[in-house]
Amino acid sequence: MTATIGSRMLRKEDPKLLTGEGKYIDDIHAPGELWMGMVRSTMGHATIASIDTSEAEQMPGVHSVWTGASLTEAGLCAAPLPCAWPVTEDMVNPAHLPVAVSEAKHVGDIVAVVLADSRYGAADAAEKVIVDYEPLPAVGSLEAAVADEVMAHSDLGSNKAFHWPLIPDPEGTEKAFAEAAHTVSAKFVQQRLIPAPMEPRGCMAIPSPAGGEVTFYSATQVPHILKVMIAATTGIAESKIRVIAPAVGGGFGGKLNVDADAILSCSLANHLGLPVRWTESRTEAAGSSHQGRGQIQHIEAAADADGKITSVKVHLDADMGAYMMLITPGVPLLGSFLYTGVYDIPNLSFTCDGWFTNMTPTDAYRGAGRPEASYAIERIMDMMALEVGITPEEIRARNYIAGGEKFENYDAASTLVFDSGHYRPAHDRALEMAKVADLRAEQARRRDAGEAKQLGIGMCTYVEICGLAPSRALGGLNYGAGGWEHATVRLLPTGKVEVVSGSTPHGQGHETAWSQIIADKMGVDPNDVEVLHSDTAKSPLGLDTYGSRSLAVGGVAIAMAADKVIEKAKLIAAHQFEAAPEDVEFESGSFSVAGTPAKSVHIQELGFAAFAAHDLPDGMEPNLQEQVSFDPPNFAFPFGTHVAVVEIDTGTGGVELIDYVAVDDCGTQVNPLIVEGQVHGGIVQGAAQALFEVANYDEDGNITNPSFMDYLVPSAAEMPSIQLDSTVTPSTSNPLGVKGVGEAGTIGSAAAVINAICDGLSPYGVTDMEMPATPQRVWQAINNSNGGAA
Amino acid sequence: MIPAAFDYTVAESADHAIQLLGEYGDEAKLLAGGHSLIPMMKYRLATPTQLIDVGRLDDLSYIRRDNGHIAIGAMTKHAQLETSDVLAADCPMLQHVAALVGDPSVRHRGTLGGTLAHSDPASDLPAAVLALGGTIVAKGPNGQREIASSEFFTGYFESVLAEDEMIVEVKVPAGTAGWNYQKFNRRAQDWAIVGVAVADGGAGISLVNMGSTPIRATAAEEALAGGASIADAAALAAQDTDPPEDLNADGEYRAHLARVLTQRALEAANG
Ligand SMILES: Cc1cc2nc3c(=O)[nH]c(=O)nc-3n(C[C@H](O)[C@H](O)[C@H](O)COP(=O)(O)OP(=O)(O)OC[C@H]3O[C@@H](n4cnc5c(N)ncnc54)[C@H](O)[C@@H]3O)c2cc1C
């Protein structure tokens, strides 16, 4: 056996992907295909007075041009795009039609669709559609939405979409603040971010005019959810829809939505009997693909004289954008439970108001609500440390759950139960790896010498919620679906193993990880395992990939299904041995009778026996195929300590991240190589929020940086060589002890980097820094300070 | 991100390209490395209907010594400047600046003639040629002319080049005396928010992204020539500039950067 749970097996997916054999959406074509070209609103908020499609219709290669009105007339624009998470009974949810009919609500809102025989032809014709807009006042910022003077939706009397509270103990919270020796408060802005996967969004719907079926290819994270939602929205029978996610080049949340393109391509293809496809351009993505974050956080913390935190109060204003997408309103709530972080804080008060703006809708983006929460608590801990007069390390040490010792089943103030944790070892290891003591000495030297380049050291000790999710918990939050995952394991007649995965990879390496789980459980070579996924015809049941759930829910389902196969195989082995099943042992893939190890049979040899069914135990069904739908009893709570070291050029305001240490604990690791890859990417994505990325809007709702020239996604050149280590505290929420690691890096890194910058600038009296910490912002902070040398 | 339709012709020689420019008039654009023109076409900020590809004219790709100068063919790529032995020995500043343009794939496509013709005040090499006191050799239907770099740039993406003229060569004086280039940006592949090129110990100081063209920091140059300290001269670096404002920087911050970077460049050049 070469690879089992815990080995650094190279990814099975990679040879194909790295040699260009991966088939992405743009590699797949169908005869007669038509390309959609979207005509998108150029106004943040406007009445659509008229649309002239006549010139566009005359362009070469154009099949037809559709407006909201003509689609409605043909019955193709009847149902709005779905929102699956009405967070309160009275949540306002304005109809979000795939194509706007009378009013455009954000730049990028679709107002017409061109169908042409080429992508370029569709783009040329889309330019010739003349839309007469009558501008309406627009809400171009969250602040403007909260002011509630200008309305994002003309027919609504307020921009407020909902108010959601989580205050388990209101009196306790008030009392804690009244009795506090120290209080600090802050306002943090979580700027809007654009998910920027390597492969942009794209799709193709292929109808079968006689049979009435639609095969829908999409660069999606969620083929199973899409199937249900396409059926619900278009009226095409669910049983007639097959959704296939081919190779998908990343998503980061940006590909988990039910976007207009899915509904339009399926409806038009079904209506016309022709394949209809779409690939977005990057600029198009910047204004129409949902964005992440978009929150203003008001946070207060109370502490006793020793810096022991007694309560945290949070009010969140969350920018929904122009419409509710699939889980838009739920994203800030996913963070609500984490505002007490890794600390034993007895009281929490959390309220959230959702607001409409005339900007691109927001929705899940790597971490979805948890990076925001982690940022706020980790920044306020540093602020409290300053207030109390102790170091950031010390205030954390004084507040850890269980004093930093190992614990299981901790009742958090938020009402959640943390499965397991052991916070101090990661803390100590990270400080040691970063050589924080030496760095502090060097920092002091540079300060004394008045050098232009100053050092800053920041830490973040995070916890997050993974393994979405126990279905009952989701029900309690009014989410419109469950959180289980489905798996099938088949032992084929030739002894090979086929695994059907309900969770759908878009770059994570499920094929490798699932093969390792099977290899470990069944004692087979991981290369004897084939993983089927991402096609609803092959894998009809599943809830896909987001919220760091694949391993902690889907991987566990695989392991449980394998156990069931082994159990049945054991009965066949016992029958062959003419022994009682209780006397049969299973080890490294072989069954044998206790005490007579010479007589044994490998599980792979039983595949044929089960298939031929010539001599099975009485009453046993042929074949070795078992299914499991696993609904986790609890979430899993990974954690870790990150340390960021920055060098700040006080002359220019430039910040360079010169070292980064992360010690993460995601429970049992199936493949440390994959874990490290996830952590690396995650850290860069969080550091990108801290230093580089922001979707900028002007007051009219125009996005002012819709290209990679101005929307600064960092490259390897901007990042230090990241130092990683890990601790292992198995989860108690599942039999594998796994927790999930897809988002951890992002959840830890933004706060670590900003804490480092604030630490570096503390001699200048700087206590906070808005993200992204642009050189101009940093220079201004230095310049505005009393001690400013700039 | 999808360009409008256009026709494409491969020029057989500089003269052929110039002849085609004459025929097509303002419908046409020369295509060199395409790393400025193609992005503008993808955004439909430029919609030429005729592209004349001069990027394959290998006889315009050379770096050679020429009578106290270095002559560089217009189609020489940034990567060739970066790895040139001639430049390493006789004009290390140009070599150094070329290595800081964009990323490796940009440097393997972009050309010296293209970046000068494009006349982007945020570009690196035009400012370097300006600080060095270089000359641009342009060819038109009526023959060739030499244009001092100080006379070449006239405004945002504008130069004195006529519609039917093509840059064929760039000349810079050989010289290894105190030089430095300070490029301040946020990501390695980005254009400078502000850049400062110092040649000849400070006799030539030019600024990137401090106006509508690359400009000389004349006040600082004169103060230095008059015996002022580096700090005092650098304090004048932003004088008479009209810096652009964008998402990265407002005018005040750019002026500050010009002063700080000029001081650093002068100190390094004279260190
Ligand atoms: C991602 C990216 C990053 C970049 N970063 C930087 C950077 O950091 N610094 C920097 O300075 N530049 C940068 N650039 C620009 C790059 O250096 C360009 O290649 C260069 O500015 C233009 O050269 P080109 O040969 O590509 O010209 P083209 O794009 O082919 O042409 C540009 C213009 O010049 C005209 N033209 C071309 N050649 C001639 C000629 N011989 N005579 C007359 N007109 C001509 C064309 O008609 C066109 O109008 C970057 C580009 C990209 C895509």
Give an account of the 3D structure.
The complex is a heterodimer of chains A (790) and B (271). Chain A has 790 residues and is of the alpha+beta class. Chain A is built from 21 helices and 28 strands. Chain A has a seven-stranded mixed sheet. In chain A, helix 7 packs across helix 8 (260-272) and helix 16 runs parallel beside helix 17. The termini of chain A are far apart. In chain B, strand 6 and strand 7 form a beta hairpin. In chain B, helix 5 (92-98) runs antiparallel to helix 8. The interface between A and B is medium-sized, with 31 and 24 residues.
Number of helices of chain A: 21
Structural class by SSE content of chain B:
alpha+beta
* Main sheet characteristics of chain A: 7 strands, mixed
CATH class of the largest domain in chain B: Alpha Beta
Average pLDDT reading of chain A = 96
Supply the number of helical segments of chain B: 12
Task: Give, in order, the helices and strands of chain B.
Answer: EHEHEEEHHHHHHEEHEEEEEEEHHH
Q: Which value, in Å, is the CA radius of gyration of chain B?
A: 18 Å
How does the overall form of chain B come out from the CA principal axes? globular
The end-to-end span of chain A amounts to: 63 Å
Please state roughly what percent of the residues of chain B sit in beta strands, choosing from under 5%, 5-15%, 15-25%, 25-35%, 35-45% or over 45%. 15-25%
Largest sheet report of chain B? 5 strands, antiparallel
- Number of beta strands of chain A: 28
Q: Which strand-content bin applies to the residues of chain A?
A: 15-25%
Write a compact overview of the structure shown.
Chain A has about 800 residues and is an alpha+beta fold. Chain A folds into three domains: about 190 residues, Aldehyde Oxidoreductase, domain 3 (Alpha-Beta Complex); about 240 residues, 2-Layer Sandwich (Aldehyde Oxidoreductase, domain 4); about 150 residues, 2-Layer Sandwich (Aldehyde Oxidoreductase, domain 4), CATH 3.30.365.
